[in-house]
Design brief:
With about 325 residues, this protein is an alpha/beta fold. It has 11 helices and 16 strands. Helix 7 links the parallel strand 5 and strand 6.
């Protein structure tokens, strides 16, 4: 994501890995649509995008009613990722403090700050996480938690990048992550671009690989983490955590403090987005099921804290995860 004067340009992640296409966005309506259609995705990046979307609304009108309507539109675009509401809250506070003719410029400047903060947070996350890996590690990752999901080097894949520079990565297995294939389309594109040794797995292969090969860690991101350290992430993460526990593989969640929602007591309270079942019934635009077939499409699942070895944040490592340790590392609720 990049600034282009009074517009924002967004990398179209649906076009990857075959084409690199930027979409110009000039309104909150457009930004909400891009988020909803998953043209851009990843919890930290959604937070940044929502901030810019809110700012773009002020280009048309700086009235509180217009801005609040934009906020509600953006908040409804993806309900599970708490970074979105975190970004909107920051922008609401800025708007309240700076009413006036230059509100658009002030809001864009605040969105720029949120983006810059995410870059710095990613760097600290990656450094903390890389310390958890040993030399010649083989790791498994799920979905995409790299630079495409953030404003910086990434969360889980950011850890891989830093560990690779330190000579700690022997191989990375990337789950393909049905039905949007973020692992195959996005994570593999990132890893191959950085010349990090990697191989693609279908989601159903991971448990077998853990059983038959030496896997040193599973690294995933998160879209919302409850006060007790239960973590919501892309669908399939919970099953991966169960397999990791069965095979005694450390399971690490890597996420910024903005992903924690300390107002939610546990994972049962996290809203799980249900997307169009038709996205499960097709692949690359072609039907893969009999006509009239039904499907379910929960976009996320929740991994209980008891299955998580540690949560890596920019403020430190929460190990083992618990409500008291979350409070100790993060401090007061946001």
């Amino acid at each position: 994501m990049r600034r282009a004067g009074r517009f924002v340009e967004v990398l179209d992640q649906l076009a990857l890995p075959h084409r690199v296409v930027y979409r110009r966005c000039g309104s909150s309506e457009e930004m909400a649509g891009l988020i909803r259609r998953m043209v851009l995705r990843g919890a930290p990046l959604i937070g940044v995008a929502a901030a810019y979307g809110y700012a773009l609304a002020a280009k048309r009108s700086s009235s509180p009613k217009t801005l609040e309507k934009a906020a509600e539109r953006l908040l409804a675009s993806r309900p599970t990722a708490v970074n979105l509401s975190w970004g909107i809250d920051r922008m609401r506070a800025t708007a309240s403090a700076h009413r006036g003719p230059r509100l658009f410029e002030r809001l864009m400047a605040e969105a720029d700050r949120i983006r810059a903060e995410d870059v710095a947070v990613n760097t600290r996350l990656a450094a903390h996480g890389a310390k958890l890996l040993k030399k010649n590690s083989t790791v498994i990752t799920h979905c995409n938690a790299g630079f495409l999901a953030t404003a910086g080097v990434g969360t889980a894949v950011g850890v891989v990048r830093y560990a690779f520079r330190e000579g700690k990565i022997r191989n990375v297995y990337a789950d393909e992550t049905r039905p949007y294939l973020q692992g195959s389309r996005l994570t593999m594109w990132e890893l191959m671009g950085d010349k990090i040794p990697c191989a693609l797995l279908t989601d159903s292969m991971a448990a077998h690989i853990m059983k038959t090969e030496r896997i040193d860690a599973v690294l995933v991101g998160a879209d919302r983490i409850a006060a007790n350290a239960d973590a919501a992430n892309k669908i399939g993460t919970y099953g991966l955590a169960l397999a990791a526990r069965a095979h005694r593989v450390p399971f690490y969640v890597v996420a910024p403090s903005s992903t924690f929602d300390l107002t939610i007591p546990d994972g049962d309270s996290i809203p799980i987005e249900e997307r169009d079942p038709g996205e499960v019934l097709t692949l690359a635009g072609r039907s893969i099921a009999p006509k009239g077939a039904r499907a379910r499409h929960p976009a996320f699942d929740v991994t209980p804290a008891r299955l998580i070895t540690a949560i890596v944040t920019e403020k430190g490592v929460i190990r083992p995860p618990s409500a008291s340790r979350v409070r100790a590392v993060l401090g007061k609720p946001r």
